[in-house]
Amino acid sequence: MDCKSCTEDMTAYLDGELNRARFREIEGHLEGCLPCLEELESLKRSGRLVESHLPELEPKPEIWNNLTAKIAAAQETKRRGGLLSFCAAHRWKAAAAAIAASVVLATGLWGFWNHQQSEKALRQYMSEYIQKRDSHIHATRARASDARGETRTADSDHAEYSDNPFVEVRAEPFDNPFRSEAQ
Amino acid sequence: MGRLDSHAGGPAINTSQLVECIREAGNGNLGAYQKIYDHYARKVLNFIYRMVNSIEEAEDLTQETFTAVYQKLATLQDPERFEPWLFRIARNFVYQRYRNRQPAMVAVDALDEDGQPILQIEDQRQTPDEAFEARELEQVVQEAIASLAPKYREVFVLSAIRHLSYQEIAEIVGRSLASVKTDIHRARLDVRNRVKHYIQD
């Protein structure tokens, strides 16, 4: 080993950063080389001088106080920001949900109104139909009895059913169940 | 420099206590974080101070560092690597602060025309008879460190003063172990050359 190689690793040797083999090589060289030993001694002394004559700053209490205040402020901002950003992040979802709910409600109302309208129309139709049917039956029977020269009575329309136990014989035509509502 | 003091470290804390404090502080326990702070604040403050050469800036950046560390603590993968991680954050704040302005921390006379540090600087100052007085020696040592280029100054402080391992220093400065080893040696030689008049028999 030459002096250059020894000097290059001298600081690592002092800091205990060499592997065992390299450490022994350096030690072996130092045993027989006065200039390298002097260089080593010089580095050791300067190291001791620096350590013993380098005053250090003492941290002021304000540093801790200020940083805890800063941490608290940051946490508060984060908490508030968190709530706001939650609302901001979900505003489109909230809007979409509101629109969907409105559509469902409107569809329901429209369907209900539509159903009411068709119900009304059906009742109207049935009422008119029954009315027409009754007047047609009545007219047909009147023409038939006129042709036979019979005197029409209120009961004569139903006379042919008078012996039928399943037919309710009555003078007045059946009530039109749809009339009251449709008209 | 009235507040400059001797070399004592912060309150002692062993590795298992540190890991426990990191875990608790990561969950928002400020009391646990104060223990970590008490142990490391002085080391970080003085590392930053050596880098920026301004007490006010060093205090400000120390506060920034420990605020950021508290907020990032939950993301620390390996609590046993806390110290290199802490110094890396402190170092980042130092470089961030000085990125956009000509830093006082770069000693212009320590660079040659290629921007490379001139390492073998011959100290031309005369050695006065009274130079061995402690006060003056402190001045000499501080000037010797301040004259190093930042790249050398940071590894010098971390190795010669903080006694971190080369592996930890490589992690902090983000350079290879071989490069860090070379830089530390060059920095030590440079400081030695600047103080050599005071270490002769």
Helix content of chain A: over 70%
Number of helices of chain A: 6
- Reading off the top of the CATH hierarchy, the class of the largest domain in chain B is best stated as Mainly Alpha
Q: Give the termini separation of chain A.
A: 125 Å
> Outline of chain B, from the CA principal axes?
globular
Distance between the termini of chain B: 29 Å
Instruction: Summarize the amount of helix of chain B as a percent range.
Output: 55-70%
Total strand segments of chain A: 1
Number of helices of chain B: 8
Instruction: Report the CATH architecture of the largest domain in chain B.
Output: Orthogonal Bundle
Q: What would the CATH topology of the largest domain in chain B be?
A: Arc Repressor Mutant, subunit A
Query: Helices and strands of chain B: which structural class?
Result: mainly alpha
**Structural class given helices, strands, pairing of chain A?**
mainly alpha
Structural domain tally of chain B: 2
In terms of DSSP E residues, the strand content of chain B is: under 5%
Q: What does this protein structure show overall?
A:
The complex is a heterodimer of chains A (183) and B (201). Chain A is an all-alpha fold. Chain A has a domain at 3-52. Chain A is built from six helices and one strand, in the order H-H-H-H-E-H-H. Chain A has helices at residues 3-8, 10-14, 20-31, 34-52, 61-148, 179-182, and one strand at residues 56-57. Chain A is rod-shaped, with a radius of gyration of 57 Å. The mean pLDDT of chain A is 84. Chain B has 201 residues and is mostly helical. Chain B folds into two domains: 15-99, Rna Polymerase Sigma Factor, Chain: A; 108-198, Orthogonal Bundle (Arc Repressor Mutant, subunit A), CATH 1.10.10.10. Helix content of chain B is 61%, strand content 1%. Chain B contains eight helices and one strand. In chain B, helix 3 crosses helix 4, helix 4 (82-99) runs parallel beside helix 7 and helix 6 (150-161) crosses helix 8 (177-195). Chain B is globular. The A-B interface holds A 8-12, 15, 17, 42-43, 45-47, 49-60, 62-64, 66-68, 70-71, 74 and B 1, 3-7, 30, 34, 37, 41-42, 45-46, 49, 55, 58-59, 62-63, 66-67, 70-71, 134, 137-138, 140-142, 144-145, 159-161, 165-166, 181, 184-185, 188-189, 191-192, 195-196, 198-199. Strand 1 (56-57) of chain A pairs antiparallel with strand 1 of chain B.
